[in-house]
Amino acid sequence: MSVYSLVIHGGAGTILKGEMTKELETNYHKGLENALDAGYAILEKEGSAVDAILAATISLENNILFNAGRGSVFGKDGSQEMDAAIMNGQNLMAGAVAAVKNVRNPVELAYTIMNKSQHVMLNGNGALEFAKMNKLRLEEDAYFYSEFRHNQWKQMQGNDETALDHNIIIKDKKFGTVGAAAVDIYGNVAAATSTGGMTNKQYGRVGDSPIIGAGTYANNKTCAISCTGHGEPFIRAVTAYDVSCLIEYKGLSLEEAMNVVVHDKLMKLEGEGGMIGVDTKGNAAMVFNSEGMYRGLRKSDGTKMVLIYK
Amino acid sequence: MSVYSLVIHGGAGTILKGEMTKELETNYHKGLENALDAGYAILEKEGSAVDAILAATISLENNILFNAGRGSVFGKDGSQEMDAAIMNGQNLMAGAVAAVKNVRNPVELAYTIMNKSQHVMLNGNGALEFAKMNKLRLEEDAYFYSEFRHNQWKQMQGNDETALDHNIIIKDKKFGTVGAAAVDIYGNVAAATSTGGMTNKQYGRVGDSPIIGAGTYANNKTCAISCTGHGEPFIRAVTAYDVSCLIEYKGLSLEEAMNVVVHDKLMKLEGEGGMIGVDTKGNAAMVFNSEGMYRGLRKSDGTKMVLIYK
User: Fold this and answer.
1) Whole-prediction pTM value?
2) For a Cys staple, B208 with which of B8, B96, B101, B234, CB 3.0–4.6 Å?
């Protein structure tokens, strides 16, 4: 029987243990465990990698602690625009959405774009229109509101600063994103990523999350990858696809390739953050160059872990 | 003295000689020559690859024959949304814009994003706001209007068809994009791509042109690439960066790598179109799997050509 596995992240950055309360830490752990359970339950029943990562990512989007879906940060104009992407390694089909508002689960919209449109990437009001046409669940602004996100935004308003924060107690550089990668019992891989972007973001900035090849990539020949970090260097390094190329063209292992990209290539571009990935043999890895990364993995060999710090 | 070269394209697709008038063919040739001259004049004066591709792409954007800038096609709602990207191989800096309206030269906006913002990709109204802040030249809708584009759009309106057309006499599959790649006397490479997307496009569809790694990529270690074609397979194949990886990790030459991607990888995804590219040694190549590609190149060794058909 083949090995199957699921790995997830809830963002990376300067996560300082000293500034984390016990209660918040417990809640983060619980949120990551719930997402792992949601996805793993599907793999256990011989479900597909795509369904597993979709379920895990939706669980993280629905959790107000993470900067994606419900917990998305506020942009400069006080609105919440979200990005997401999904890719199926079996057929290289992909779906992505940028700068969409009021969609409860942007990753589900990316999934619907992948399966029900002729396109890969939709953006803005057009993406919302497509979501409505496909009867995806929408939410009023109030659903996405939380006091701590609003306070984060208020603190930055009036200046040109933007933050990649996903929670107020994290200082300095913080990258709020969620994502999942899985390999199923059939050896198919898939990955998804979702984000609310940067607090106080302006000018319609799009990060790496919805860019196929940068924040998200999956290919049955090699691996499935979801990234989290300072989006701009991740776009410039074509981060997720670079891991795949290092495996396919140079024969590196999943973890070797992830290490090259995260600790060498990204560092040269001052690209702080990390990534999670699986390969078709059931290997899973979580690599980051920041202080911490909310992350977890579960494999059919019994391995299970949820971690925050180094 | 190093070899320098410039290569450009004005879109690919089913370009049938029998349906082209002599006059139109002459105008296409003239448009491509003008763009080559604009860029090459900069390389000749020991200017940078970035400046050369910017000038060549602006020239193509200003020519109403090509689907980019002034000649952009109409979307479903009758408006003209444009995408563009630029990348500097010397420092891997990049700029991209998606779904922007009323900016005279989207590639200049991408260039300004690269040089004057902390971001790589801006979209929609936010991108327009950034253009205004940086005093880029805007144009009223009338500037972008031409009767033949409007007729193309009217023909498709009311149905759900979309076309990648860039001129009305081209039947079947036609991919309207412009782009340039250059290597300068210092061995620096750069690439840019610009497009008005698909006629009658809807739902805020974004193609490969503004996606760093897919439609546009440049790296002094390897090459600079600009693509044109059916955007979705190009995104799924991470086309431009794949050429770079085949050179960097497998040791292929520029042309070998372009052939693998265009004739093998893209064909497997039914990805019709092509690409142009240069490497740091001054080599230039133009490869496509469609009936034709508007294209031209000029090198410091005296080579100069402008071609349309196979």
Assistant:
1) 0.94
2) B234
